[in-house]
Fold this sequence. Notes:
By secondary structure, the chain is mainly beta. The protein has one domain. It contains one helix and nine strands; from the N terminus they run E-E-E-E-E-E-H-E-E-E. Strand 4 (36-41) and strand 5 (44-49) form a beta hairpin. It is globular.
Amino acid sequence: MAYARAMVFRNPTVTIDDVAYTNQVSKARLVPDTPTQTMRTFGGVDKDRDTTSWTLELAGHQDRGTGGLADALDDAAVAGVAIEIVIQAKAGAGQDKATVNFIPVPVEFGGEAGEWKAFDATFEVVDQPTFAQSV
């Protein structure tokens, strides 16, 4: 029997500073990095695990028009302020969601002939994500 809460990451919702960008985003992923140092001694192994830091991988359309995600990211990067993103696994109540603040940087412009004009960027997350269920 399949696990009851198993799901394909299909129809997620993405909001940045309370503005919905779901139709402009093709990837939204939080990636943890927990550095571990190991030292072998004559008496055994010593390990030190550092605090986990996170990055946000975000990809989507390079829409720089009014209401465009690329435009919002570029504007926030110029302003130099952290912005909030909420990634929800599926629309509706009782769904997994993560909320983080991240440091915006300008996203790429242009692309290859015949390809979608898209960006794929990695952003620094401030502090730790908050994981919860949607209401």
